[in-house]
Amino acid sequence: MSTLLINIANGIGTLTLNRPQLKNALDSSMRDALREAIQSIRADRSMHAIVICGKENNFCAGGDINSKNVVDAQAGRERIDDSHEWIGTLLDLDRPVIAAVDGVAFGTGFSLALLAEDLVFTARELDADEAKQLGVAFEIVHQQTLHARAQQLAEHLANTSPAAFGCQDVRSLKGKRAGIDV
């Protein structure tokens, strides 16, 4: 069973975290699959937007502590560096990323959701109203319409100019990293 399901249609890549028995906790196999999928999407100029979601009503419970295999400080540092590599690629992507967050979003899962340009939350386990008030969520939708709304946002953003979106996105991120309001 693949830990990451990839569906590509109409210029939109949907990446579905697929470890529902563990609330889609990230293990090394899923991290490797995410890295490869993000690099492929980055290289494919026909891809105009990405949706990231979790299988069976959970986004991502964070890192799978049973699969971390961290035996010493160096191994822990290498695991963190590995995660930073694929997360950095996603962060620097010049296409919109939509996070369809249903259910839990803990640890790395919450960080992954925060990397998206647009978040769509449901009100299960995570207080969606508070997330929206804090500016973490773009909008709140009913659980039944979550994935359809995320696809709709992706379709809308996929029709924007990739060059303009990429320049604006990179400019904003670099300013935020430097503490500059852009």
From TrEMBL:
Q: Which GO molecular-function terms appear in the entry?
A: isomerase activity
Q: Which residues form the signal peptide?
A: none
Q: Which Pfam families match?
A: ECH_1
Q: Which domain of life is it from?
A: Bacteria
Q: Which residues form a coiled coil?
A: none
Keywords from UniProt, A to Z, are:
Isomerase
Q: Belongs to which family?
A: Belongs to the enoyl-CoA hydratase/isomerase family.
**Identification of the protein by name:** 2-(1,2-epoxy-1,2-dihydrophenyl)acetyl-CoA isomerase
